[in-house]
Every structure is written in C-alpha cells, then in structure tokens.
UniProtKB/TrEMBL annotation, chain A:
Assembly notes: Heterodimer of an alpha and a beta subunit.
GO biological process: amino acid catabolic process; fatty acid beta-oxidation using acyl-CoA dehydrogenase
GO CC aspect terms: mitochondrial matrix
SUPFAM superfamilies reported in the protein's UniProt record: Adenine nucleotide alpha hydrolases-like
Annotated function: Heterodimeric electron transfer flavoprotein that accepts electrons from several mitochondrial dehydrogenases, including acyl-CoA dehydrogenases, glutaryl-CoA and sarcosine dehydrogenase. It transfers the electrons to the main mitochondrial respiratory chain via ETF-ubiquinone oxidoreductase. Required for normal mitochondrial fatty acid oxidation and normal amino acid metabolism. ETFB binds an AMP molecule that probably has a purely structural role.
Residue span(s) of domain Electron transfer flavoprotein alpha/beta-subunit N-terminal: 26-218
Name under which the protein is recorded: Electron transfer flavoprotein subunit beta
Keywords (A to Z) from UniProt: Electron transport, Mitochondrion, Transport
Subcellular location: Mitochondrion matrix
Pfam families to which the protein is assigned, alphabetical: ETF
Lineage start: Eukaryota, Metazoa, Spiralia, Lophotrochozoa, Mollusca
PANTHER family in alphabetical order: ELECTRON TRANSFER FLAVOPROTEIN BETA-SUBUNIT, ELECTRON TRANSFER FLAVOPROTEIN SUBUNIT BETA
Source species of the chain: Mytilus coruscus (Sea mussel)
TrEMBL record, chain B:
Protein's UniProt name: Isobutyryl-CoA dehydrogenase, mitochondrial
Active site (catalytic residues): E402
GO CC annotation, single: mitochondrion
Pathway: Amino-acid degradation; L-valine degradation
Reaction catalysis annotation: 2-methylpropanoyl-CoA + oxidized [electron-transfer flavoprotein] + H(+) = 2-methylpropenoyl-CoA + reduced [electron-transfer flavoprotein]; propanoyl-CoA + oxidized [electron-transfer flavoprotein] + H(+) = acryloyl-CoA + reduced [electron-transfer flavoprotein]; (2S)-2-methylbutanoyl-CoA + oxidized [electron-transfer flavoprotein] + H(+) = (2E)-2-methylbut-2-enoyl-CoA + reduced [electron-transfer flavoprotein]
Domain Acyl-CoA dehydrogenase/oxidase N-terminal: 46-157
Keyword annotations from UniProtKB, A to Z: Branched-chain amino acid catabolism, FAD, Flavoprotein, Oxidoreductase
Alphabetical GO biological process terms: branched-chain amino acid catabolic process; lipid metabolic process
Length: 255, 425
C-alpha cells in the first residue's frame, strides 16, 4: 500500500489556563479578548500525524479547523508543527455559537472523501465542551472503523494496531484502513514548533471552504436555554469529636 | 558578629515556616491574566510574532525557569539546554537563512530574548551574546567562514564569545592593545581580554586586535578557535549574578591564527565591534525586560495573597501606586527597546543614539522594577527561595556591559550637541 494521507481536526478553544467566565445574559461563556489556543488533544493528534509522516507511513498531513476567521491562527500552529496544508471551514460567528459535533463530523467526513484521506485523527475530546463525539460520529458517517482513546499507533501491513486506553487498563485492537483515530493524552508529547518552521508555515497553502461548499446544513438542532456557573461550594463545619460527627450525620439523615 | 548571624538564621527559619503557604503563588511566566492587560508583551504584534513569542515563552517556562535557581547557585553552564534552544532556531536568530540562520528581524529577535529571559536572565543573556557573535560572522566574514561556523552556531552545538574589553581598555575600546603580527600565513596574537562571557567553555572567540596604527582604524576582527596554539584562559571569575555562564579572561601568548580567519577587511575591526554592539545593546536590554516582567507578575500575585493588618497587600494604596509605577517603567522600556530594534531593521541614520537610549533606559528602569519587586516581597524577596533576588542580581550587570550606561549617555549627548555631520560606523 502506498503512503497514506492523514486528515487532522484542530479545534480552536479557550486556552486551558483561562478562568472561564459566564456571560451576564447566560447564553454562553465570554470569548472576546480571551486567549485561545489549539485544543491540547488535537495538538497530540497533529503530532501523531507528523510522526507518521516522519516514519514515511504517511505522505501528507492536512489540518482542518471549523469556525470563525481566527481558526486560521490555530491552523498556522498546526502547519508550524509539520502539517503540509490546511483547510479552514469558515463558519460565521452566529452559526458558530450553535455548531455541534454532528456538524463538524459531517465536515470532516466530506473532506475525508474529497481529499481521499486514509486516516482521520482528532483529539478524543475538546477541552471546552468536553463532548467526545466528533471522532465517533465521523466514523459512523463514513462507515469506517474507529480506534478511539489511542495511546499507541503502529502500522502492520495494511492495518493499524492501536492500543486504547479503557477503564481499568489497555486494549489492543487492529483496524483496517481507512480508519478514524482519536488521540488520548499519553499518545505522545507534542513538539515545540521551531522558528524556521513557524516562518515556513506562512507559505504553506491554506484553503477556505464554506459549509455550503461541503453541502452541510449548519442550522442548529439545539437551543441553549441557560449557561450557569457551577454552584459555589458551601462552607463546612468543624466538629470536636467522632461522637459529635456521628450525631451530626445522623441528625441530617446522612447515615 | 556571630550573634548577628544567628539572628539572621533564625529569622530565615521563620520565613521558611510560613513560606510553604506562599509557594503556591510562584507561577509567573505567561500567566493568563497578563493576556490583554496593559503589560501584555504581545500588544501590537503580528500573528507570526505572537507565535514566535509564544514559542520562546513556552521554552522559558518549561526548560529555563525550573532550573534557573539551581544553575545560579551551583554555577552550571547548561550546554544541553542551549543545544535544545539551538534546535528551535534561537542560536542565530538574525543571521541569513542560506547558512542555517533563522533570518528574523531585530525586532523579532528582541521578542525572543525578552520572552526567554523571564525563565533565566543569565542564560538568555549568554544566548544573546552568542547571537551577536554569530551575526558579526554572518554579516562581515567571507563565505568560507560563514559556511564553516554559522550552521554550528545556529544549532548551538558550538558556542561563541565576544572579546573586546582588556584590563586597561573598557569604555576606551578604540585604544585596545592586543597585538596581531603577520608571520607568513598566520598572525601571532599577544595580549589579554577580560570579562569574556563563556570564556574557556566556548568554541570560537570573535577577537578585536591591533594589526595597524594606533586608534580605531588599526583594529582588525579575527576568529580564534579554542584549540589554537598559544590560547589560554584565566580563572573563572566569581560574580554577583550571571552565574549560569562562566566568565574568564582570555590570554594570547604568540597565539597562532590563520590569515583566513580574519573577519572583514584589515582595519575594519572597530567598526565591526560597534555594529555588533548596536544589536547587543538591544539584546541585553531585552533581557532586562523579561526579568522585570516576571518580577512584576510574581509581585502582583504576591500582593493578592499576602495579608497584613487584616487585609491583603493589594488593598494598600501606596503599594497599588508602586505597582502602577513599575508597570509603566516596564512598558516604556519595552517601547524604546522595540523602537531601537526597528531603527536597526530599517537602518535609520540615528540608530546608534536610539540603541544607546534603549539600552540605558531599559536596563536602569527594569533593574528598578526588580528592586521594587524585591521590596514589595519584604523579607521573602531577599530569600533565594524566591526568584526576585536572582532577577535583581542578574540584571545588575546589564548597566555595565555592551557599553556602560555612561558611554550610552555619551553617545546620546554627542548626537544632540554636534553641529557637524553625524557620523556613525
């Protein structure tokens, strides 16, 4: 089998270190003027794709991001890390507010077919909405096998051998290509983009597509009723002795 | 004396006891609250510049800051980490790309040194001197020397030192005495260079020596390799700061240097030395910016958790005002450093006094910021458990080297007072 083409999803999310604030009207969280960066699990996905290319298993790495104009910054990071080209699916900010994993899965599925991708890698979840759906739904739409929560990927003949992180241990599975992978935390440690690669990234091609180019209806299927802060933790009480503790627990009907 | 010492020890024990609660606030570098604030170092930068800055900030946070105290206290020259920095393109940031340089502008390079110095000012200052040497070779040496040295210097597999100052000639650099006499296909060098950063541990020395008449026009620039016969080094100096890089004198006793190692033309040495220093001044000023930035960030966090008189320190107006003054000094310093960097990138006719202003202003004001940060940390600031005192020690020398701040004032006033045509090398 000839070298493979890899498509990687890169979501632009609020930086992991930012303290999230809910908008006063409770329609969402504040994103204006807030630092954003690439979803850390997607960074791992890009790193894995670039390593596949370095091992000559992959021939081309294509990074995709779906969202507003600023997603191009995220794609430049992916290009600086070693992706060959990028596709920005431009979503206007109003549609983006209600964009769901199902929409992104449809974009990725269509692009995987158009670009003749052999492997699609996405992060196992995004750290903003924690959905953990995109990879799985993309596999369903394409009717491709999926290897989720991958912590090791190897190519054997025409198949991929993938070690998955599951509850209580590791599972080794074999998937036929083409396939979908989702990256878990321990898959690899992403590299620093070097200065020369940051500069080369400027010159790498970046295509722009719209939802209608890809034949995807982005009308929202969900309505956000209210976004709220988690409840503030209430103050505890100090007790003098075990007896007092037991009495209090009994009184409040907890034991 | 002995009882005073005991008192100090006891005091520091008390500090240690409470410091456990405060260690949690030692974060600093790249803190998210800085983003979008008035001290955000990325204000006004392009998307690519922000990416470059982010890379250097990440490197400072992950590779430098965790080691900065150890490198200082044990006087470790971290060659392995320098190599890592070289692999990312920090070794020859503003050299041309054809020989392995990164090809950045002076402004972009300044962003890198500023960001890195938050993690370790001393180590970054060495990287900046190494960059200055690489540029002098890249700009003035012939292609053979460039092709031999730039790739190795860019990767920081080989390191470079700058040799101008002598025991009797510091600010009066045009009258240096180290002599170079032609003997067939090589020169024989005699003399001593002092305060050489990296001296004895680096691989190539960019040396200014006298091949001709007295004064600036008799000086020539040469590359002296570490293995050259007749090259020796003095003892490692003990210093207030900059302890992660060794400083030694470099001694030439009939030191043989092939004619092919001359950089530029005979007699161009002083010009080359000064051209290198224009950039060196921006670089070292940038290193002060990073130290001041992180000192300020750490101080802001400290004021928010340290309680006295029943309230946290950020409630006291005197300290609020102090913080505002520190922030303003930092931002104004940054602005003049970046203006000077732009003046070099565009070869403005007044680049020399602008670089001088930037170096003098930024190194003095940022030292004050570090000093104020120490004061606001109270007794803790004086302890080596906190990074502040090291930033203060490491930035102190920036007022002395790459041309003292007194020489900077001389260059600025000369530019203002002259009625003649302004001549700069």
């Amino acid at each position: 089998m000839s070298a493979l083409r890899v498509l990687v999803g890169c979501k632009r999310v609020i930086d992991y270190a930012v303290k999230i604030r809910v908008k006063p009207d409770k329609t969402g969280v504040v994103t204006d003027g807030v630092k954003h960066s690439m979803n850390p699990f997607d960074e791992i996905a890009i790193e894995e794709a670039v390593r596949l290319k370095e091992k000559k298993i992959a021939s081309e790495v294509i990074a995709v991001s779906c969202g507003p104009q600023q997603c191009q910054e995220t794609l430049r990071t992916a290009l600086a890390m070693g992706a060959d080209r990028a596709i920005h699916v431009d979503i206007d900010s109003k549609d983006y507010e209600t964009l769901q994993p199902i929409h992104v899965s449809k974009f990725l599925a269509k692009l995987a077919q158009d670009e003749k991708a052999d492997i699609v890698i996405v992060g196992k979840q995004a750290i903003d909405d924690d959905c953990n759906q995109t990879g799985q739904m993309t596999a369903a739409l394409l009717d491709w096998p999926q290897a989720t929560f991958a912590s090791k990927v190897e190519k054997n003949n025409g198949d991929l051998t993938v070690i998955r992180e599951i509850d209580g241990g590791l599972e080794t599975i074999k998937v036929k290509l083409p396939a979908i992978l989702t990256a878990d935390l321990r898959l690899n440690e992403p590299r620093y983009a070097t200065l020369p690669n940051i500069m080369k990234a400027k010159k790498k091609p970046m295509a722009k597509k719209t939802p209608s180019d890809l034949g995807v209806d982005v009308a929202s299927r969900q309505e956000i009723v209210s976004v709220e802060d988690p409840p503030v933790r209430e103050a505890g009480q100090k007790v003098e002795s075990v007896e007092e503790l037991v009495t209090k627990l009994k009184d409040s009907g907890l034991v | 004396m002995a009882s005073a010492l005991k008192k100090v020890t006891k005091l520091s024990l008390i500090f240690h006891k409470c410091s456990k609660d405060l260690t949690a606030i030692r974060r600093g570098i790249g803190d998210i609250w800085v983003n979008g604030s008035c001290i955000d170092p990325s204000i006004g930068l392009s998307e690519e510049q922000i990416q470059i800055q982010q890379l250097a900030t990440d490197f400072a946070k992950n590779e430098l800051f965790p080691n900065m105290a150890q490198w200082d206290q044990q006087e470790i020259f971290p060659k392995d980490v320098l190599k890592k920095a070289g692999q990312l393109g920090f070794g020859a940031a503003y050299c041309r790309e054809d020989c392995g340089g990164t090809g950045l502008s002076r402004l972009d390079s300044s962003l890198i040194f500023e960001a890195l110095s938050q993690g370790c000012t001393s180590t970054t200052a060495f990287i900046s001197i190494h960059n200055m040497c690489a540029w002098m070779i890249d700009e003035f040496a012939n292609d053979d020397l460039r092709q031999k040295w730039i790739p190795q210097l860019a990767g920081m597999e080989k390191l470079a030192s700058y040799c101008l100052t002598e025991p009797d000639n510091g600010s009066d650099a045009a009258n240096i005495k180290t002599s170079a006499k032609l003997h067939g296909d090589h020169y024989k060098l005699n003399g001593t260079k002092v305060f050489i950063s990296g001296g004895g541990d680096t691989d190539v020395y960019v040396v200014m020596c006298r091949t001709g008449e007295a004064g600036p026009k008799g000086i020539t620039c040469m590359l002296v390799e570490k293995e050259s016969p007749g090259l020796a080094f003095g003892q490692k100096e003990k210093k207030l700061g900059w302890n992660s890089q060794p400083t030694r004198s470099v001694i030439f006793e009939d030191c043989q240097v092939p004619v092919s190692n001359v950089v530029g033309n005979l007699g161009d040495g002083f010009k080359i030395a000064m051209r290198g220093l224009n950039g060196g001044r921006i670089n070292v000023g940038s290193c002060s910016l990073g130290a001041a930035q992180n000192s300020l960030q750490l101080t802001r966090d400290y004021l928010k958790v340290r309680k006295q008189f029943g309230k946290t320190l950020d409630n006291f107006q005197y300290l609020q005002f102090k913080l505002a003054e520190m922030a303003t000094k930092l931002v104004v310093s940054r602005n003049i450093i970046r203006t000077a960097a732009i003046s070099l990138d565009n070869n403005w006719p007044n680049k020399v006094p602008l670089c001088s202003m930037a170096k003098f202003f930024a190194t003095e004001e940022c030292s004050k910021v570090c000093n104020d940060a120490l004061q606001l940390h109270g007794g803790y600031g004086y302890l080596k458990d906190y990074a502040i005192e090291q930033y203060l020690r490491d930035t102190r020398v920036h007022q002395i080297l790459e041309g003292t701040n007194e020489v900077m004032r001389m260059l600025i006033s000369r530019d203002i007072l002259t009625d003649e045509e302004r001549k700069y090398v």
